[in-house]
């Protein structure tokens, strides 16, 4: 008799749990019901790309040693490293370097593996052109200082949703100096460094 | 293909080094790099660079070795810095190589400009090169100017 009751009890419990989990999962969806769409008036307002954004690649000619590692790690061997051996100086002489951004998939392997850090990612993402060959950047174009949303006087930079303070949905009219939810990397570092001497002291004691 | 070429060069280099007579001769004159900074630049670097540029087809280059402020926005113009200034095409092409440490082995910087405009960015020069000698200085200068597409067409 009790066995039947237990079955009923379990069934009720599991139904309640299932309903709870479905509700939890949908809470993100339901959260959107209280949000209004945010319109970024694009050429006049632009979103600030997140950190570690992979935009156009910047290249510093002087640091390049023509090792061709960027070519090897590239999924399609895209960078063109044109060098010749200079007999007089016994050194590789780098003539030209180019990356075609019409073909590049911005995976960032070249930047990651470059031994001299002469390649770096920028936040520049506006790479439209009327002709695809214009996207083949040579070392002069790759060496130009990148465009930044926050440095353009004609553009109002707006924070992306993840960078807004807790409970905030609208990036327009945000209070100056408003911080994103959670700790900033500097604060985390400070905490780690504050906790360090204690950890070192423990094994000694 | 480039690697093959490199290997060939490497194979050639030891063969050239074999005769000991050539080595003994080299040791006699003091090393160019050990000469005083001014003398090295004035008497060795500038003529060698001029010759190398003539080899690239630029005959009207005007090279000067002066001490003056860095002509870049944001730099202190009262802070004097030794620099090699190269000009050609009536000043349409201008490049500066800065030696802030007054030493060829010290820090070096490069800037370039066209059509009498002031240069906009200061770049490092030979930042990853530990060895500094006349050939390398000339080679890196020519390489940098070539990278600016000033010596050959793209």
Describe it.
The complex is a heterodimer of chains A (205) and B (154). With 205 residues, chain A is α+β, with helices and mostly antiparallel strands. Chain A has a domain at 57-151: 2-Layer Sandwich (Alpha-Beta Plaits), CATH 3.30.70. Helix content of chain A is 31%, strand content 16%. Chain A has helices spanning 2-31, 69-73, 109-113, 139-142, 185-204, and strands at 45-47, 57-59, 80-86, 91-100, 119-121, 136-138, 156-158. Chain A has a three-stranded antiparallel β-sheet. Chain A has a two-stranded parallel sheet with strand order 1-7. In chain A, strand 3 (80-86) and strand 4 form a beta hairpin. The longest helix of chain A has 30 residues, at 2-31. In chain A, 12% of the residues are buried. Chain B has 154 residues and is of the alpha+beta class. Chain B has one domain (38-147). Helix content of chain B is 37%, strand content 21%. Chain B has four helices and five strands; from the N terminus they run αααβββββα. Chain B has helices spanning 2-17, 20-27, 37-55, 134-147, and strands at residues 62-69, 80-88, 93-99, 109-114, 123-124. A five-stranded antiparallel β-sheet of chain B has the order 1-2-3-4-5, covered by helices on one side. The radius of gyration of chain B is 18 Å and the shape is globular. Chain B starts with a helix and ends in a 7-residue tail after the last helix. The interface between A and B is medium-sized, with 26 and 25 residues.
Q: What features would you highlight for this structure?
A:
heterodimer; A: 205 residues; alpha+beta; Alpha-Beta Plaits; two-stranded parallel sheet; 5 helices; 7 strands; 31% helix; elongated; B: 154 residues; five-stranded antiparallel β-sheet; 4 helices; 21% strand; globular
Provide a count of the helices of chain B. 4
How are strands sequenced across the largest beta sheet of chain A?
3-4-6
Which two chains have the most extensive interface, and how many residues on each? Answer: A-B, 26 and 25 residues
What general form of chain A does the structure show? elongated
């Amino acid at each position: 008799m009790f066995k039947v009751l237990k079955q009923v009890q379990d069934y009720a419990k599991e139904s309640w749990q299932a309903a709870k989990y479905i509700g939890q999962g949908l809470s993100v969806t339901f959260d959107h019901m209280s949000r209004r769409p945010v319109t970024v008036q694009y050429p006049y307002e632009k979103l600030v790309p997140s950190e570690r954004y992979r935009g156009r690649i910047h290249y510093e000619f002087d640091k390049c040693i023509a090792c061709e590692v960027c070519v090897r790690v590239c999924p399609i061997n895209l960078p063109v490293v044109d060098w010749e051996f200079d007999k007089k100086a016994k050194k590789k002489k780098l003539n030209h370097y180019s990356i075609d951004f019409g073909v590049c998939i911005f995976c960032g392997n070249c930047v990651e593996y470059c031994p001299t850090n002469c390649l770096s990612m920028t936040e520049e993402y506006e790479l439209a052109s009327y002709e695809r060959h214009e996207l083949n950047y040579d070392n002069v174009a790759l060496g130009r200082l990148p465009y930044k949303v926050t440095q353009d006087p004609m553009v109002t930079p707006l924070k992306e949703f993840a960078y807004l303070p807790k409970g905030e949905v609208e990036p327009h009219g945000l209070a100056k100096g408003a911080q994103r939810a959670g700790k900033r990397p500097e604060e985390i570092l400070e905490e780690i460094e504050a906790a360090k001497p204690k950890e070192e002291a423990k094994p000694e004691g | 293909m480039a690697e093959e070429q490199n290997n060939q060069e490497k194979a050639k280099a030891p063969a050239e080094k074999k005769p000991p007579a050539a080595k003994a001769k080299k040791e006699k004159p003091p090393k160019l790099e050990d000469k005083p900074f001014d003398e090295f630049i004035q008497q060795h670097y500038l003529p060698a660079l001029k010759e190398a540029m003539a080899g690239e087809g630029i005959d009207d280059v005007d090279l000067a070795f002066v001490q003056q402020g860095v002509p870049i926005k944001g730099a202190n113009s009262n802070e004097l810095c030794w620099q090699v200034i190269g000009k050609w095409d009536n000043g349409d092409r201008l490049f500066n190589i800065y030696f802030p440490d007054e030493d060829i082995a010290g820090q070096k910087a490069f800037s370039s400009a066209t059509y009498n405009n002031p240069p906009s960015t200061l770049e490092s020069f030979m930042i990853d090169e530990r060895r500094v000698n006349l050939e390398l200085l000339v080679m890196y200068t020519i390489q940098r100017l070539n990278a600016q597409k000033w010596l050959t067409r793209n």
